Amino acid sequence: MRSILCFTAAVALTVCSCSGGDRRETGWSDTIAVEAVVVGDSESSAERNYVGSIGSEREVSLSFAMGGRLTRVAVRNGEHVVAGQVLAEVDATRARSLHAASLATLRQAEDAYRRMEAVHKEGGISEVRWMEMETDLEKARQAETSSRKQLEDCTLRAPYAGVVSCGDHHEGQEMKPGEVFCRVLDMERLRVNFSVPEQEIALIAVGDEAKATVSALGDRELRLRVADKGMTANPMGHTYAVHATVTGGERKGLLPDMVTKVHATLGDGGGMAIPMECVQTMPEGTIVWVVKNGRAEQRRIVVGDFFSEGVYVESGLAPGDTVVAEGRQKLYSGAKVKSRRVEE
How many domains does the chain have? Predict the structure, then answer.
């Protein structure tokens, strides 16, 4: 009996020693290895670059309302014009004839009205007849106004001073009704148009300042202020259109559609920033895992603006906090943690 007990004890000791040896050989530990970042103040992480083009705050597209054959092209693409300057004309023969006929009818109606007016005052004609005379005169006036407008529409004039942007038009070309002949852009009120990816559009606000460089003019720098941003995305590129007013810089030599490089600082351009992989959204709010004294601690935070690499933190963290970026799925409150810093 004693020998059996001794044998059992020996087996137990052997098993324990083997188990302890396996534990040391496999390197098992209750410490969880994670990768972390140290929270600091960021000043340049929100700097972004976009490709834009020069445009105008005020521009108008001009066309011939009735169409017709071009008889005169008086401007070239890129030419500066003044208010009222003739840009182009179409054949006005028919419009001139219609206006002449309506003008003759109006003069006839006015003459008849003057002659019958004295008779009407003396009671020589009925009220019904007099109302017909007034109606005929008004119809003649409206017809003359309409035909005169058609005649005027045969000539395009610049509504204000600016630069002409037009296609390759020539005399003898047939213009369709409403077909755009050219655009006139007010180059004293310039803007830069550019597109922003959908994940960054929320960081662009009206009034934000930016700058642009024009490579065609020796990297000339322009100062910008965001005037408005589109509410509808481009379905192909998932981008939103942004328009920024040019507030400073030399404008001489700038032409419509010149390419620019836009440099913008998204959000507030500073503050505590952490990578997106640090953040978890839970039913109770947004949380991160913080390493404090070698232990894991769950921390609720309030996030601010987002940018492509991460998010700004408004509250819940302090500069110098160590936040888990990878390996947070294995953590629990109070877990022993061995962190390795991730270089951002």
Answer: 3
**Whole-angstrom distance, CA of residue 88 vs CA of residue 158:** 10
Query: Residue 335: is it exposed, middle or buried by C-beta count within 10 angstroms (0-12/13-18/19+)?
Result: middle
Tell me the C-alpha distance between 66 and 125, whole Å.
42
User: Do both 53 and 191 map to the same domain?
Assistant: yes
Query: Do 52 and 201 share a structural domain?
Result: yes
d(CA 101, CA 144): 8
- Give which of 178, 157, 179, 159 is closest to 169, Cα–Cα: 179
State how far the Cα of 159 lies from the Cα of 81, in Å rounded to an integer: 10
Q: How many CB atoms lie within 10 A of CB 333?
A: 9
> Exposed e or buried b for every residue in 61-72, given b needs 16+ CB within 10 A?
ebbbebbbebee
Give 87-144 pLDDT, tens digit per residue: 999 999 999 999 999 999 999 999 999 988 888 888 888 888 889 989 999 999 999 9
Q: Is residue 25 part of a domain?
A: no
CA atoms of 230 and 240, how far apart (whole Å): 6
Q: d(Cα 339, Cα 262) in Å, to the nearest integer?
A: 39
| Exposure class string for 219-257: b at 16+ Cβ within 10 A, else e | ebebebebbebeeebeeeeebbbbbbebeebeeeebebe
**CA dihedral (289, 292, 297, 299) positive or negative:** negative
Q: Flag whether 20 is in a domain.
A: no
- CA torsion sign for 236, 242, 248, 251 is positive
